[in-house]
Amino acid sequence: MGSPCHFALFELQPSFRLDLEQLAVRYRELARQVHPDRFADASERDQRLALEQSASLNEAYRVLKNAPQRARYLLALSGPELPLEVTVQDPGFLMQQMHWREELEDLQGSANVSGVATFKRRLKVAQDELNESFAVCWDDPLRREEAERLMRRMQFLDKLSHEVRQLEERLDD
Known about the structure:
Layout: H1 6-9, H2 20-34, H3 44-65, H4 67-78, H5 91-110, H6 113-137, H7 144-172
Subunit structure: Interacts with HscA and stimulates its ATPase activity.
GO biological process, one term: [2Fe-2S] cluster assembly
Organism: Pseudomonas taeanensis MS-3
């Protein structure tokens, strides 16, 4: 990685457990310092640098505030780059995915608002449990495979959670 580590930009040690409110405050402070408008009268080079710094900061913040992306980033820092899509060698979780998908399709079909809220709460509990499991094992080289498996599960739940939010918006209309 040619650019500075995302954590270093925020003066943080690489860690899965982050105080997201503190991260947001630090992001806003740094964003003000490098905002391209502050360099309107600067040289072309300084304007370009400000734009690059602003883009790097935005990217770092986007990755660090999202648990699955932060997990993937931490694993990438500590080992070989991970392929984006890997067939999950995880039959139990594959069954769970199919079950969640069917349940979400049923909720879409029935337009059941309270059912969607319940589903969303269960999903949040599952995400919190995965986040906690990942936090415990990500920096242990002997548990790397487990950490990668957990990260992939986190990515799936994140995607599912996004679909649930879209469904909620449609039902609210």
